[in-house]
Amino acid sequence: MTERTVRQALHLYVSGRVQGVGFRDFTRSQARRLAVTGWVRNLSDGRVEIWAEGEPQALSAFVEQVRRGPRAARVTDVRMEQATPGGYADFEVRHG
Question: Where along the chain is the active site annotated (predicted)?
């Protein structure tokens, strides 16, 4: 019998200079590299919202990358909440 991998989910809100600097594309690139699924979108208040699902080690590495952001970004805060995985198959940039 094989051991089933445990997937977890995180709901993140990222503050700072995170819009207009390629943050969503950077996030999608890092998620796909780390086999994290979910989505990212800009919020009207200037923050970025992320839903991320994956194995614990992958999520930890993903959050580390989100805290760093792309070169032009300046992340000042990342708020995280544990969530229940929704079964996303890919990672997408959402608009609107």
Answer: 24, 42
Q: Looking at the chain, how many residues does it have?
A: 96
To the query of whether residue 28 is one of the catalytic residues in this protein, the response is no
The model's pTM is 0.93
41 is catalytic: no
Report DSSP letters for the chain, one per residue: -PPPPPPEEEEEEEEEE-SSSSHHHHHHHHHHHTT-EEEEEE-TTS-EEEEEEE-HHHHHHHHHHHHH--TT-EEEEEEEEEE-----SSEEE---
- Name the catalytic one among 42, 47, 68, 71: 42
Q: What is the pLDDT of residues 59-95, one digit of tens each?
A: 999 999 999 999 999 999 999 999 999 999 999 999 9
